[in-house]
Amino acid sequence: MKKVIRALILEDNTADADLLVRHLTKSGLSFVSKIIESRKVFEECLDTFLPDIILSDFSLPSFDAVSAFKIIKRKNLNIPFIIISGTIGEENAVMLIKEGVTDYVSKNNYSSLIQKINRALKEAEELVQKEDLIEKLKIQTAALLLANQELELQNAEKEKRAIELVNVNKELLAFNFISSHDLQEPLRKIQVFISIIMDKEMEKMSEAGRNNLKRIHVSATRMRQLIEDLLDFSRVSVVDHPYEINDLSAIIEDVKLELSDTISQKKAVFKVDTLMPAFIRPFQFRQLIYNLISNSLKFSIPERVLEITMQSVILKYDEFKLLNLSNVTQICDYWNFTFKDNGIGFDPQYNQIIFIIFQRLHHREEYSGTGIGLAIVKKIVDNHNGIIIAHGNLNKGVTFNIYIPIME
After folding, report:
1. At 40, which CATH number?
2. CB 187 within 8 A of CB 227
3. Nearest to 335 by CA among 273, 280, 271, 254
């Protein structure tokens, strides 16, 4: 069910408030609103209305946006704060953004308002998730230190487990560093300033200046994508998601629905053969399926109908060991999931390195991306104690085979 957003509107002009509410309704935002104009009611609403976002006029007869924002900061509340005004002026807007205000919109132009609201809500949600992850990280780190002391006295198998826990801890620490507020906040301000310049100054700039500004915008956008991909990588590094029996059918249909626009544009054809049930972490396998399908869509051949085939079978151990795969330590049957497409593929010499994080086989100008997608796939398979093998052929597509041990 779509979440209903609680919007607290600080506005003394009834006509302006009604116009704002009509615009939000017309944009399709699911929300309830409360319109106020005094400090006392504002402070009360913070405790009773519990707003998800605050939309404030810059100046009111007895109150103003600056005072309201100071109250938010004093209470240490993580509530997006967007100023909507026709008199604020660009200099005041830049000053307030430097102070921490989320964004601003002119009353004369609401066209970007819903986009800025959605972005602000998403960033606020991500901040909450990161704080939860940091708290979990502290707990896991403390537990890890205790475990390491005990593991020094144990056998080789327990020492191996200690190394695995250390690696998980390092990955979580790396994510915490990269996706922390110190990285997200400057990037958000850069994008806000770029938007201000593009809205106000583009016509005054030289052609070279406009080109350079567009390049800055592209780089900032790519940086945001990189942070989001690292967030995905960190999520699959946490291995406490529960296992469930699943045949992937619902997961595949859910991913296809999410990517329906791109699938329609590429005219992709799916062939899903029998899917044998497997004991997996559905949350992580959804990310795996999403990344593999996205990869196929991105690296398709324009003049060729993209065909994606998926199937799974159960291999008895005697059949599995005939594959002569390395790093096999468990004697059991295996669940084998095969994913195949007929896209651009790659030279077989790259069969192993494509799973290395940040590894790219193509220039960024040819194909977008950060080089993290298949590293996430490999991490998910590792979390299931499995093996993934890639077989690429240039201009003939790629086949991924995933083998997950079936434990009693």
Report:
1. 3.40.50.2300
2. yes
3. 280
Q: What's the number of domains the chain is made of?
A: 3
Q: Of the segments 15-24, 159-168, 180-189, 348-357, which one has the largest average pLDDT value?
A: 15-24
The confidence band for 370, taking pLDDT boundaries of 50, 70 and 90, is low
Q: Are strands 334-341 and 397-405 parallel, antiparallel or unpaired?
A: antiparallel
* 254 and 396 co-located in one domain: yes
Task: Give the up-direction half-sphere exposure of residue 167: CA atoms within 13 A in the CB hemisphere.
Answer: 11
pLDDT of residue 142: 83
Statement to judge: residues 303 and 286 lie in one domain: yes
Ordered alpha helix ranges (H), 49-112: 65-74, 90-99
Q: How confident is residue 365, by pLDDT bands cut at 50, 70 and 90? A: very low
Which residues form the domain of 212?
Answer: 117-237
Pair 145, 288 in one domain: no
Instruction: Say yes or no: 282 and 198 in one domain.
Output: no
What are 313-346's pLDDT values in tens digits?
Answer: 999 988 988 888 876 777 889 999 999 999 988 8
Together in a domain, 78 and 135: no
Contacts of 313 (CB under 8 A, 6+ apart): 274, 276, 335, 336
Average pLDDT over residues 348-375: 61
In 238-367, where does DSSP find H-type helix?
249-258, 260-266, 282-298, 317-321
| Whether residues 248 and 397 fall in one domain | yes
- The answer to whether the beta carbons of residues 389 and 401 sit under 8 Å apart is yes
